[in-house]
Amino acid sequence: MDKAATETTGIAGATMAGGKIQKKRHQQAAPPQQQRWGGGVPFEKSKGQHILKNPMLVDTIVHKSGIKPTDVVLEIGPGTGNLTKKLLEVAKSVVAVELDPRMVLELNRRFQGTPHSNSLKVIQGDVLKCELPYFDICVANIPYQISSPLTFKLLAHRPAFRCAVIMFQREFAMRLVANPGDNLYCRLSVNTQLLARISHLLKVGRNNFRPPPKVDSSVVRIEPRRPLPPVSFKEWDGMVRLCFNRKNKTLGSIFKQKSVISLLEKNYRTLQALQLNNKSQLEEDKVSLEDVAVLADMVEDLSMGNSDEKDDQEMEVEDMDMVGEDGNDASFKAIVLGILKQGDFAEKRAAKLTQVDFLYLLSLFNKAGIHFS
C-alpha cells in the first residue's frame, strides 16, 4: 500500500501531496498576545483590550445605566465602538476616552458621516492622567489593571456624576460590594462604600469578549454619596489601614502593639506641639479632592490577596506586646485601649465592622486628640 509522499519545497507554503504540487499562501500567525478579529484592528491582551461581542449584553448594560436623553455620557475604553453606538442612540452626547491611537482612528472612521458624528467626542489619552470633562453617567468596559485607581479618580471627580456602570474583573467587583463578615470584605470595600453606594448588576462570562480574558467579569453600579461624610479621608484611610492589617485579629491585639502605639503617640505629641486650635481642626476635616484621591493607594487590593498573610504585607506590625516600655508609653497605651473599651471595640475584628462602626471609632480617637495622619 503506497503512502502519499509529502515534502516541503523551497517555495513558502508549497507542499507535494500525492504527486501534485499544492501552493498555499504563507499566512503569518498573529503574536500570542495580539489577535485580529473580523479583519479589523488587532486587539492586544497585554493592554487589556477585550471587546464585548454579545449585542444583547451591550443592550442590557445601556438599559441598566438609566441614561436620559439629556445626559452626557463618559465612556472609557470604547474600543471599536460597539457600546459607543448604543450609547449615542440614547444619550445627548458621548465623550469617549481611548488610549490606543489605532482604536481612536477606527472609532472616528466608524461614525464619520453618520447622524451621531456631532454627538461624539473622542479624547486620545490615558484616562488616569487626563482631565475628565463634565459628565452625568460613566459607562465603561475597562482594562482590569486600572480598576482601583480609576474607581477613586471617578469618585474624586467634581461635579459629582449621577452614576457609573462599569465592567470589572469579577473578584474586584465582589470586593467592592462585599459586606462585613464576607470573605472578600477588605479596605477596598470600606473605602469605596464610604464614598458611594455600590450594587452588583450582572455577572459576565469570559466568552462574551474577544479575545476572551482568563477570568469572568461583573458589571457594577456606583452612585456617589451626596453629601460625603464629614471626615478627613487621609485620616480615615490611616485608621482603616491599621485595622485591616490583620482583619481577623481583634482590634485590642492590633492597637496594643508597640509599633502602633509609637505611631499614634508620635502623631499625638506632634499635634500637641503645634497647638492646633478649633479653626485648624475644622480645616483638617474639610473634604478635598486630594483627600479622596489618597484612598486610591490600594496596593493589597490590586494584588487580589485574601489571606491574612497578604494583608500583613501592607504594613509590618510587631505581634509581641511592648517590651521595656517607659511610663509615657504605658500611659498612652492605657489611653488607646481605654478608647477601644469605651466603644466596646477591644474584642471586635475589622472584618465584621460596618461603616458606622468605623466612623464611631474614628470619632472616639479624635475626641481624645489621637489622629491617624
UniProtKB/TrEMBL annotation:
EC number: 2.1.1.-
Region named Disordered: 1-41
SUPFAM superfamilies: S-adenosyl-L-methionine-dependent methyltransferases
GO MF annotation: an example: RNA binding
Residues annotated to bind S-adenosyl-L-methionine: 50, 52, 77, 98, 126, 141
Ribosomal RNA adenine methylase transferase N-terminal domain span: 57-226
The entry's keywords: Methyltransferase, RNA-binding, rRNA processing, S-adenosyl-L-methionine, Transferase
Pfam families listed in its UniProt record: RrnaAD
Gene Ontology cellular-component terms listed: nucleolus
Superkingdom of origin organism: Eukaryota
Enzyme class: transferase
Record's compositionally biased regions (Low complexity): 1-19
Membrane-spanning residues: none
Coiled-coil residues: none
Listed PANTHER family: DIMETHYLADENOSINE TRANSFERASE (PTHR11727), DIMETHYLADENOSINE TRANSFERASE-RELATED (PTHR11727:SF7)
Cited NCBIfam families: ksgA (TIGR00755)
Family assignment from sequence similarity: Belongs to the class I-like SAM-binding methyltransferase superfamily. rRNA adenine N(6)-methyltransferase family.
Name the UniProt record assigns to this protein: rRNA adenine N(6)-methyltransferase
Organism: Zingiber officinale (Ginger)
The organism's taxonomic lineage, starting at the top: Eukaryota, Viridiplantae, Streptophyta, Embryophyta, Tracheophyta
